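Hey, I'm writing a tutorial for new members on how sequence and structure tokens pair up, and I'd like a real worked example in the thread rather than a made-up one. If someone can provide the structure for the chain below, I'll link this post from the tutorial.
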Amino acid sequence: MHWPKCKRPASVLMNAVLFLTLITTGLFGSGTAQAASASPEAERFLQLYNQLKDPGNGYFSPEGIPYHSIETLISEAPDYGHMTTSEAYSYWLWLEVLYGYYTGDWSQLEAAWDNMEKYIIPVNEGDGNEEQPTMSYYNPNSPATYAAEYPQPDQYPSELSGQYAAGRDPLDAELKATYGDNQTYLMHWLLDVDNWYGYGNLLNPGHIATYVNTFQRGEQESVWEAIPHPSQDDKSFGKAGEGFMSLFTKENQAPAPQWRYTNATDADARAIQAMYWAKQLGYDNEVYFDKAKKMGDYLRYGMYDKYFQQIGSAADGSPAAGTGKDASHYLMAWYTSWGGGLGQTGNWAWRIGASHMHQGYQNVMAAHALSDPDSGLIPDSPTAGQDWTTSLKRQLEFYTWLQSAEGAIAGGATNSWGGSYQAYPAGTSTFYGMAYDDAPVYHDPPSNNWFGMQAWPVERIAEYYYILASNGDTSSENFQMAKQVVTNWIDWSMDYVFVDSKPVTDADGYYLDPQGNRVLGGQNPQIATTPAPGDFWIPSDLEWRGQPDTWNGFGSFTGNPELRVVTKNPGQDVGVLGSYIKALTFFAAATEAESGSYTALGQQAEQLAKALLDTAWNYNDGIGIVKPEARGDYYRYFTKEIYFPAGWSGTFGQGNTIPGTNAVPSDPAKGGNGVYISYSDLRPDIKNDPSWSYLEDKYTTSWNPQTGQWENGAPEFTYHRFWSQVDMATAYAEYDRLINGGGSGPVEPVAPQAPRNLKADAGDAQVSLSWSRTSGADSYTVKRAETSGGPYTEIATVSETSYVDLDVVNDRTYYYVVSAANAAGASPNSVEASATPTAAPVPAEGDLKLLYRTNNTNSTDNQIRAQFRITNTGDESIDLSDVKLRYYFTVDGDRPQEFHCDYAVIGSGNVRGTFVKLDEASSGADYYLEVSFAPGAGTLAPGADSGEIQIRFNKNDWSNYNQANDFSYDPTKTSYTEWERVPLYVGGQLVWGLEP
């Protein structure tokens, strides 16, 4: 994703404080952290944290989701400010890791992960809503059907041709074996937080936030040309009978209703990176480390070619299907995607990787965390650790291969030239058989021109350099590559960064030397400057020339004399500034760890980091650190450039018909036959935005379409982007931690937080208690009362997170709380939980018995299957038309349900099923299926049985059930066994078994 650049400065002075008390309340919990005699950097971190978490500042939605920005009229990777991205979530985790380090309060990190799992990882997080309802139908031997990528949106939809058979997916089987299913535990990259588009959350209607997607139509499709559409498409919107699918892919028939998600690999990797640092800095809750490990396990799909083709096999235009890990490039591709069907015909699923690798998405820290035995984060699948070990070295080689003669990092590589496995152009440099690409994935604007794509990944390499140097590993090839890449990059970048002065440029943004000549690369350039007290400038854009030499290993690296970069357009992007400061800081700390004191370059980096931090603080407006931006690209709100094929007409989520009546003919030179509309034609609600009238007036009075210039100045906006503010906040914290030695121990409070998620389950003369593990706790004290709110009596102190209270009597209600403790003290009490033990029911016993079995041992499935036999143990015949059985279950997302009898000795046509919703849900059941029999089923003579009755049932949208907690389900009974949890009734009276 490409974020915009800041153009013009503003100055809002803030007074630093010597003693800071941080208080967070409301939605984000409560507690007080005091930093006594802390450094300015520690104080500023905590102040920025407070600004971000203050509900009045508007960074978070009512559901607790971080917005991309406070402001709404913004168009970059998200085309509306109150969208959010997986990047924003990963930054949120990073923020909470450092907050936990400074305060000892790790509960906010856990709350952030919980929110991430609930709203942007599309899994059933315990609410019964299946968000990947048909993934179990995925066939790893046929992952997806091939469709070519094209340069222009106008050349879409792309035919699902199957021209190249997909290779085999080697991960699916081991992931199923490890986790019990193959539902992908990764973030979908884009979320419509306030449901601004209006599509709604189809598979989890209790959530306001809605999964959506945009970019689907080739490398030239910018945010200005994309069509936002729902990720869960039942064809309620879009073209009648087709939804939005027919804009992107072409089939021989109408596309089926479907769900589909896409992750951005760099965001999930950053989340894992954050959890690695949490572990290093004192956090110790294995529950959340296990979640990070699982995410890392599934993140390996980012290592695979889009259609699992062998790496390098398409160099001549003839790709070969992969047979396993020969389709793995071991890098972080731009995305992975997965999806499947909805409704009665939805018994299918697919998965793709990506063939394009961008240097900005690599994360050596995540690879280190997921491969190093000392990290404690190696995933559980048997081949995951080795895959990430290979990936770590491959990424470091990738950066070495892409480093220009000046030091900047070039774009990346592809395994599918043109997105359609074309033959590589003659003379193309290669890396492990993949072709060099100076701008992988998108070209509007080119994906590797933005300086942020330099600062993000190199900061991670600087972290890795610091870790190896701190551990004394200064001779390995990994260390040598990391150190070389970071050192060269720092040396290059500092030539173009300025504090208290402004570089001189020409009208086209090129830096000028003191003689007025353009600086077109080279080592140690001399840049002309003018005084600018209290200001900072960093690069914005890069131009690339040449290509790297073909990779033949680190020992043969040439230094890439023909790969050159021209640095352009000084800017003031505060988000990039934060990443850049962290790169400087980790680099400086690494040189000290390696050498015992800063090297000369390390000392310069540390001093520059400090100067930039001090200067940036002057731009804190009380909500965040910001600079006004001139948005020269905002004329595209009005330009007709969103393509629709001829004859395509449908409904957008905001109620308007698209393309509508304002369309103009498309440009045939771009390969299409259709029409164009504008951003505001597609999204009419943008005209209700409070900033729209300003933008529209500016466009009317300043934009000249003939000259392509804002003749009276471009529109200016000040944006409080969440990720930018976190980047700055963490820059202050990391400088304090690494340079000042700050935060060596958490400030007060250091006692554990109150335990969370206390549950009390009643039994027969007992109550079973459980709660979530509390970071830093050595023991837990269980307290009980017979009145809600206490007073409580301590009944046990335990080291585990569960306790069974046997000192209770039936039919009396008990109230419980739990506190945590360590050497520093005890926590407050948890939230109260209650339970009323009752005597266990006695199964009814009459003249009938039911035997049960199931061949459905996977608790998560889109249908429930069971087989029964009914036996008459009495002395008289029983008419089966008087007999009923009840199968109790939880519906896990209330939908109309369908009953099927696949086989019955007494005749499947004589077996009927009726679904009954319980008036009040009980443990393990909110519905039951009542099976009855027609008169044609006959009678059961004494000693006879009904013979086998095979039944199954499903919801009409084929979404999954979770049978694990169902009253009548027992996956261990694979042969016929008496089973009292499927009760029998004769004439409406219970004669066998138990009701829940």
